[in-house]
From TrEMBL:
Pfam families: PBP_dimer, Transpeptidase. It comes from the Bacteria. This is Penicillin-binding protein 2. It is a single-pass membrane protein. PANTHER family: PEPTIDOGLYCAN D,D-TRANSPEPTIDASE (PTHR30627), PEPTIDOGLYCAN D,D-TRANSPEPTIDASE MRDA (PTHR30627:SF2). Keywords: Carboxypeptidase, Cell inner membrane, Cell membrane, Cell shape, Cell wall biogenesis/degradation, Hydrolase, Membrane, Peptidoglycan synthesis, Protease, Transmembrane, Transmembrane helix. Its EC number is 3.4.16.4. InterPro entries: Beta-lactam/transpept, Beta-lactam/transpept-like, PBP_dimer, PBP_dimer_sf, PCN-bd_Tpept, Penicillin-binding_protein_2. Its main location: membrane. Residues 651-661 have a biased composition (Pro residues). It is found in: Cell membrane; Membrane. Residues 277-617 form the Penicillin-binding protein transpeptidase domain.
């Protein structure tokens, strides 16, 4: 067995290994110290300013303040959409110890917040960090004081005063002015489609954007520029002080001046009562829209703080559609108000207006009888009488001499079948039938006969069939007929941000004066001839100022042969529409009106004309020239010379004793009427 061998390393080799390790570690240490020194020098000398700025930003926050929205005024400077101070209570999620507990305490102070607890929690959780979220607006003074009294027991809760959008006339301008609401995902997607980031203000719970009407169309101009408060915060982000010098006030949005008149607009909504429809009043000289009212309306103030789903659903499901603007979005058959258009087409075709048609109550064509509204007929009618009496048979008999294409061309010249640049988009163009329209319609739907038949022209001639118009188009038609020279274009926005919007030159109407005079004379007879369809409903009672107009009663559905058109108490959706168009004064036209009542109780003369008269009276009474004409004194009667007797004049009665009693008249003589027979009834059209 061999002994184990013991080997000893060389001492020189061990010392060399130690020295190599020492050099490596020393080198690494030297490199680290050098790098650290270099970095410290860079931070303290080169990047000192940058990190000082970042430190300051951590210490100070800039909190955006939504700007006051621009005012919207009527043509007289009356505010129709403004801002008002409002007390509100807010919650900052990151400053509350327990959000549920905080909301429980708030519920004891403000009981109505309990019902909206779920939506409040949703808004608080969606808000950015340390961003205050409104819990309730429009606090009373007692509620505001109560929240401040218990502020120490409500961490993360604050109460302040801010400006809130306010509509002083409620529903009167709800459709034309619109309303504001919180930005939603769709609003932010608009920026994403353009490759832009939404403004930070869009995430502010207090910010509102325009919805519908002018508020939406001019939203960017009305927004203004946001301001902000520069506040000092602690490490947890809580506000400890405010840097007044670093804050900037918000810039209010641009002021918008409209052509509307608050008094006329309010009166229009009043006269509708519970009925549904639209009313437009225009100045025929420059196209200014003085009134654009839709009924029934809604209170736009409710949308500012948010409408509950139950209320919104009730509005949306109501058959009279209070959320729909019936002046530019809703379309209706114009009924007999279209007969002036047909009359101009007949004159354009060379038809003699003195040619007569005998109305016996209907017109037989193509194996079908087209009824006139008057069962017994109107007798012999020329064009003037046909407009005055609204005789359907006359237009049945004559319309195919002009043809549907000529009627469509005249309708477009008078303003139908088109939308207008009034600052509000999404208008309904309506429908003006023609041979080309029918071909394109049949091609689009892929079924039906593209041929236009003369029998279809009969319905169009009296404002029925496929014809569909809105109240604004009817007002434009009436304005152009009254103006007689120019294609008046409607205007709604007068100035934005102090910059006046210039009036554009109107193109000429293609109709000779003598043709327009015939049509206007027929409209004057409608309102001022005792046998006119709107005589009793068109008397303004304003001195010598008179209206010229036209009634209309349009079918809302097809009737079976022999079916009655229904009494006043028929189901609302099965009634006919009532319409009335007019201008005044008829001898020097200045204002035009178009009024539609959807599913009216009776017809144009009974329902629409009286309401239009009341609105027109306000427009006339507000006009200084018209008021001066109304208040103009009558010329004094000439006085006879003293001590002279006019030739042929009756001599003065002698002074004699009272005559003896005369014998009593017989019953037959008492029953004999004296004087003109009173007007006892009015036609239904």
């Amino acid at each position: 067995m061999s002994e184990p061998s013991i080997f000893f390393s060389d001492p020189n080799e061990r010392q060399g290994s130690f020295l190599r390790r020492t050099l490596v570690l020393g080198g690494l240490t030297a490199f680290g110290v050098t790098a650290l020194t270099f970095r410290l020098g860079q931070l303290q000398l080169v990047q000192a300013g940058e990190y000082a700025t970042l430190a300051t930003q951590n210490q100070f926050n800039f909190r955006l303040i939504p700007p006051p929205r621009g005012l919207i005024k009527d043509r007289n400077g009356v505010v129709i959409a403004g801002n008002r101070p409002s007390f509100r209570v807010l919650v900052v999620r990151d400053e509350t110890k327990d959000l549920d507990q905080t909301l429980d305490l708030l519920g004891q102070l403000l009981p109505d917040t309990v019902e909206r607890r779920r939506s409040i929690i949703r808004d608080v959780n969606a808000a950015p960090r340390f961003s205050p979220v409104p819990v309730k607006s429009d606090l009373t003074w007692e509620e505001f004081a109560k929240v401040n009294l218990y502020a120490n027991e409500l961490p993360g809760v604050m109460a302040d005063m801010h400006e809130q959008r306010y509509y002083p006339f409620g529903g009167a301008f709800a459709h034309v002015v619109g309303y504001v609401a919180k930005p939603n995902a769709s609003d932010r997607e608009v920026f994403a489609e353009r490759g832009e980031d939404p403004p930070a203000l869009f995430f502010n719970p207090s910010y509102r954007v325009g919805r519908q009407g002018i508020e939406k169309a001019l939203d960017e101009a009305l927004r203004g520029e946001p301001g902000g408060n520069r506040v000092e915060v602690d490490a947890r982000g809580r506000v400890v002080a405010e840097d007044v010098g670093g804050s900037r006030p918000p810039v209010p949005g641009a002021e918008v001046i409209t052509t509307l008149d608050a008094d006329i607009q309010n009166r229009a909504l009043e006269v509708f009562g519970e009925e549904s429809g639209g009313c437009v009043v225009m100045d025929i000289r420059n196209g200014d829209i003085l009134c654009m009212a839709s009924a029934p309306a809604f209170d736009p103030n409710l949308f500012v703080t948010g409408v509950s789903s139950d209320v919104y659903r009730a509005w949306a499901d109501y058959e009279r559609r209070p959320l729909l603007d019936k002046t530019i979005y809703g379309t209706f058959p114009p009924g007999s108000t279209f007969k002036m258009t047909t009359a101009l087409a007949l004159l354009d075709a060379g038809i003699d207006p003195s040619d007569r048609v005998v109305c016996t109550g209907g017109y037989r064509y193509g194996g079908r009888t087209f009824r006139c509204w008057k069962p017994g007929g109107h007798g012999a009618q020329d064009m003037h009488d046909a407009i005055k009496n609204s005789c359907d048979t006359y237009f049945y008999h004559m319309c195919n001499r002009a043809g549907v294409d000529r009627i469509a061309r005249v309708a477009e010249d008078l303003g139908f079948g088109q939308a207008y640049e009034i600052g509000i988009g999404g208008q309904s163009d309506g429908t003006v039938p023609s041979t080309r329209w029918k071909r394109e319609y049949v091609e689009a739907v892929g079924r039906g006969d593209p041929t236009w038949y003369p029998g279809e022209t009969l319905s169009v001639a009296i404002g029925q069939g496929a014809l569909a118009v809105n109240a604004l188009q009817l007002a434009v038609m009436t304005s152009r007929l009254a103006n007689g020279r120019k294609k008046v274009q409607p205007r709604l926005i007068k100035a934005v941000g102090g910059e006046e919007r210039p009036l554009e030159a109107f193109p000429d109407l293609p109709f000779p004066d003598e043709q327009l005079d015939i049509v206007r004379a027929g409209m004057a007879a409608v309102a001022n001839d005792v046998t006119g369809t709107a005589y009793r409903a068109s008397q303004l009672g304003l001195g010598d100022i008179l209206m010229a107009g036209k009634t209309g009663t349009a079918q809302s559905r097809d009737y079976r042969p022999g079916e009655s058109r229904g009494p006043r108490n028929a189901v609302w959706s099965r009634r006919d529409h009532a319409l009335f168009v007019a201008f005044a004064p008829h001898d020097a036209p200045r204002y035009a009106i178009a009024l539609i009542i959807q599913h009216a109780p009776a017809g144009g003369s009974a329902d629409a004309a009286p309401r239009a008269r009341e609105v027109m009276k306000v427009a006339l009474l507000k006009d200084p020239d018209m008021r001066a004409r109304i208040e103009r004194p009558l010329p004094p009667a000439p006085e006879a010379p003293v001590d002279s007797i006019d030739e042929g004049a009756a001599p003065p009665a002698p002074e004699v004793a009272p005559p003896a009693a005369t014998p009593r008249a017989s019953p037959a003589s008492e029953a004999t009427p004296t004087g003109p027979r009173p007007y006892l009834s009015e036609p239904p059209r």
